[in-house]
Amino acid sequence: MKHLLGVLSVAFVAAGWATDSQAIPVSYGQTTHDTTDWQELANVPAGDQYGVSWSVNNGLTWGHEDLYVGQTVQFKFNMHKDNVGTHYADLIKAWVDWGQDGTFNSTEKIFYAEHLLSTEPVLGSGQTPATPDLEYFSQKYQLTQANVGELWLRALVTCSHSILVNTAYGADWNMQWDPQFTQHYDELLAPVGHYYQGETEEWKLVVHSVPEPSTITLLGAGFALFSAARRRGKKSAS
């Protein structure tokens, strides 16, 4: 599991940022894995060990830059595979705690997708995949004053069999293709639990407010009066 903290700081008229490490609060629960051999969150072609990034300029650039009220943010998820795997599907899902209540709930899902591997039951395989790197995008979110504060994001990748084992439906390999599951993996993939395959990334996003236009105007007027007073003082002294 990759624990990450993006600390985004802003001054009154100047902004800067820093990064630090911090574990996600225990209230969010844990998501654990045993192996990343079949699904990993990473952007290998770009040399990036992390698979979560975001853009605030309509996809022109992707990274982990500051977030501010008024921006539109879109998240990108990169999944890498060293082995083909012969599950029903690889799955990827992500949540953001928009409510900032220390938990992830179903209404806070920001992305879900399935990468279909096999339409019928087959045994496992260790072959190198023809397409080892997959890229997914969330919808775009407009940041408002209601988002100001600390927002935790959790993204995970796993396989359909791992989900069935985690939800106690049994370890029968062929159950992955049962229609009662193939239509419901989205609901079954929870933000907590032990999914023996895959990986989880967690990011702390801090959304900052910006000065109100009226405040900026008042500050500008104040600076202008101060400068004018200083100029008058210098003329009097001369």
What report would you give on this structure?
By secondary structure, the chain is α+β, with helices and mostly antiparallel strands. It has a single domain, classed as Immunoglobulins (Immunoglobulin-like, Sandwich), CATH 2.60.40.10. 17% of the residues lie in helices and 34% in strands. It has 4 helices and 14 strands. It has helices at 160-166, 179-182, 185-188, 213-237; strands spanning 2-3, 5-10, 15-20, 31-32, 40-41, 52-55, 67-68, 72-80, 89-96, 109-116, 133-142, 149-159, 193-194, 199-208. Strands 1, 7, 9, 10, 12 and 14 form a 6-stranded mixed beta sheet that branches. Strands 5, 6, 8 and 11 form a 4-stranded antiparallel beta sheet that branches. Strand 2 and strand 3 (15-20) form a beta hairpin. It starts with a strand and ends with a helix. Mean pLDDT is 84; it is low at 6-21, 214-221 and 223-238.
Query: How does CATH name the architecture?
Result: Sandwich
As a whole number of angstroms, the C-alpha radius of gyration is: 23 Å
Distance between the termini: 69 Å
State the domain count. Answer: 1
Largest sheet geometry:
6 strands, mixed
**CATH superfamily, please?**
Immunoglobulins
Helix and strand sequence = EEEEEEEEEEEEHHHEEH
Q: Mean pLDDT across all residues, rounded?
A: 84
Bin the strand percentage.
Answer: 25-35%
Helix content: 10-25%
Précis, in short:
The protein has 238 residues and is of the alpha+beta class. The protein has helices at residues 160-166, 179-182, 185-188, 213-237, and strands at residues 2-3, 5-10, 15-20, 31-32, 40-41, 52-55, 67-68, 72-80, 89-96, 109-116, 133-142, 149-159, 193-194, 199-208. Mean pLDDT is 84; it is low at 6-21, 214-221 and 223-238.
